[in-house]
TrEMBL record:
Highest taxon listed in the record's lineage: Eukaryota
Biological processes per GO annotation: centrosome cycle; spindle assembly
Species this chain originates from: Loxodonta africana (African elephant)
Gene of this entry: HAUS4
Protein name: HAUS augmin like complex subunit 4
PANTHER family, sorted: AUGMIN SUBUNIT 4 FAMILY MEMBER, HAUS AUGMIN-LIKE COMPLEX SUBUNIT 4
Coiled-coil region: none
């Protein structure tokens, strides 16, 4: 590493690609973390020389691989015996079913009875165990000698049964293999037995290849998930920085921009209001123009002149009446008494005139 134990920007990305993504288990680190912790890059390089991809030490990983190898060998041996055991049990089950439906030959009955007896004795002998003699009481007080008495009496029957059992097991296993082949490749159902057998020899290799492809796909998916997590973390940080920048820009420029926008909106509204006023005035003038023609205006002018002349005459008469009233008001209470007396005399005169008229009518 350059600069002693410190990590330069370019070297940080190289360490992330070589160590964190390949030699060490997936970890959420970025180049900024290495820059903030200068000695951490050297620690990663040192640790990567002593551990594998799973995080185990090299010695422990080697011991684990050897242990898994032994486990696989024991598992293979157990699976072989288990498969053989299940196939034999299936043969016996088929025998029990056939005894209910069809008549078996003497050889078939002899074969299945000898097989059942031998299998039963073998299972009971296994249950007794090799280390129970002389140490703990045996199961139900039985000894191996007691079980051996249940073995088939004739050794020839046992040899004959074992030879036939081998053929039966082979036939049963062949059927199962063909069934597995047809399940894996449904198109093989119509093939001949020879072609099916040839495909069965390669089925194990095909399954191993498919399993390896599946593991490779899972590994690629795991790497992509790690890359996706790193990209998500990076994108999140970038988005946060962008949001902070946008927030700062808004805080700095929002008031200025808002004031300019308000001023522009006010000018727009003012111009729009003036346009509306002018439009209303134009509509008003249009209505007046349509309502009052030149002839109507002339007639209205003549009417207005006559009305103004009549108003002037009325004002003159009113002025004369006001002067007369002012003159009468100057006389005071004496004038009021004379008015009342005049009114009474006028009323009396009117009454006598009416009486005289009635008197003249009576004499004519």
């Amino acid at each position: 590493m350059a600069s002693g134990d410190f990590c330069l920007p370019g070297e940080g990305m190289e360490i992330l690609q070589q160590v964190c993504s390949k030699q060490l288990p997936p970890c959420n680190l970025n180049e900024e973390d290495l820059l903030q912790n200068p000695y951490f890059g050297k620690l990663l390089l040192s640790v990567s020389q002593h551990v594998d991809e799973s995080g185990l030490s090299l010695t422990l990983a080697k011991e684990q691989a050897q242990a898994w190898k032994e486990v696989r060998l024991h598992k293979t041996a157990w699976l072989r015996s288990e498969i053989l055991q299940r196939v034999i049990q299936e043969l016996l089950v088929d025998y029990y079913v056939k005894t209910q439906d069809t008549n078996l030959t003497a050889e078939d009955k002899k074969f299945h009875e000898t097989l059942e007896q031998r299998l039963l004795v073998t299972e009971l002998t296994r249950l007794l165990g090799p280390g129970q003699e002389g140490e703990v009481p045996s199961l139900l007080g039985l000894e191996k000698a007691d079980l051996l008495e249940l073995m088939p009496p004739s050794e020839e029957d046992f040899v004959w049964m074992r030879a036939r059992l081998q053929l039966e097991v082979e036939e049963q296993l062949k059927k199962k293999c063909f069934t597995l082949l047809c399940y894996h490749d449904p198109n093989s159902d119509s093939d001949s037995e020879t072609l099916k057998a040839a495909k069965m020899w390669k089925l194990a290799e095909v399954l191993v290849s498919e399993k390896q492809q599946c593991q490779d796909t899972k590994s690629q998916q795991k790497e992509r998930m790690v890359l996706l997590e790193k990209q998500s973390a990076t994108y999140s940080q970038v988005l946060l920085r962008c949001l902070a920048l946008l927030q700062r820009l808004l805080q700095e420029h929002r008031l200025k921009t808002q004031s300019e926008l308000d001023s522009i909106n006010a000018q727009y509204l003012e111009i729009k209001c003036s346009a509306m006023v002018l439009k209303l005035r134009m509509e008003e003038l249009k209505v007046l123009s349509d309502t009052y023609t030149a002839e109507k205006v002339e007639v209205h002018r003549l009417i207005r002149d006559r009305l103004e002349g009549a108003i002037r005459l009325q004002e003159q008469d009113m002025e004369k009446s006001r002067q007369v009233l002012n003159t009468y008001e100057v006389l005071g209470e004496e004038f009021d008494r004379l008015v009342k007396e005049y009114t009474q005399l006028k009323q009396t005169t009117e009454n006598k005139r009416w009486v005289l008229q009635e008197f003249n009518k009576a004499y004519h």
